[in-house]
Amino acid sequence: EEFEPTEEVRPKTPVKPMTATEVKVNVSIPEAAERAAATGADGVGLLRIEHMVLSLGQTPERYIQRNGRRAYVDEIVDGIREVAEEFYPRPVRARTLDAPTDEFKELEGGDEEPNEHNPMLGWRGIRRSLDKPDVFRAELAAFRRLYDMGYDNVELMLPLVNDAADADRAAELMREEDIDPNAITWGVMIETPASALRIEELVETGIDFASFGTNDLTQYTLAVDRNNENVADRFDELHPAVLQLIGSTIQTCREHDVATSICGQAGSKPEMVRFLVEEGVSSISANIDAVRDVQHEAKRVEQQLLLDSVR
Ligand code: PEP
Ligand code: MG
């Protein structure tokens, strides 16, 4: 007769293999936090705030104008808090706003958005944040409030950074919002070839981590629109050019004690997991449904590396 564990002895989270590589999970909506936490992931590698913002039905500028900055800060605090609470003390890496202008167009206030031929190459992520610091500063104020509330597991991640100037300016704005970059865990996404090529200067800005956004890194490295079905077969996250940028970035980061991670879709692919673990990545963030497979694949590769090293 098969053994059926009772409620008491059944582990709350699935038994997972112990890996040196941390395996985390991506969360796009706070409502998914419970399911994400139940995977046994070591934390959240990417918490997108786009959904929290776009669901307001107004552009952030319009929302702040109508409802006040405080209301915008509250929305971000509530969204991040739901996930940080569920995962505490496991780290939750929340990313500041990164939505292209075309996604704001349908919202109230969207008529004031610029018309861009290439929104993906346009005014998004850290670019918009630095140009329109009012919205960015309100997001930083949300992080500040979360730290004050005791959520020291919240980490801050900046999207679409190109170079040290972007990171330095962001750090300056953090200080203006009473956040000491040296006292928190913060980092940048590596999702443009520029950021991978300029990693030597980026590691000097005080970042604690660099996280590969392979959706964009692939798009920009191969000049293949990630949303264009005509070139979908050319969208290859494992292309040698992409892997070369990732590999060299990991090496530089390791030399400077900066953690590395992946939070793009490719982190859920076994081939990418193999490559990253062999390169010595610190953590891998996968989709909820892929966490378990990634844990096991990471374990397999780690064991193989260990066997190879003693041979
Ligand atoms: C990425 O580019 O890989 C990423 C994780 O960011 P997003 O998909 O939100 O652009
Ligand atoms: Mg991206």
TrEMBL record:
GO molecular function, one term: ATP binding
One GO-annotated biological process of the protein: gluconeogenesis
Keyword Signal: no
Keyword terms: ATP-binding, Kinase, Magnesium, Metal-binding, Nucleotide-binding, Pyruvate, Transferase
Every PEP-utilising enzyme C-terminal domain range: 12-302
Similarity field: Belongs to the PEP-utilizing enzyme family.
Function of the protein: Catalyzes the phosphorylation of pyruvate to phosphoenolpyruvate.
Name this polypeptide is given: Phosphoenolpyruvate synthase
Organism of this sequence: Halalkaliarchaeum desulfuricum
Gene name, Swiss-Prot/TrEMBL: ppsA
Residue numbers of the full-length protein present here: 475 to 785 of 785
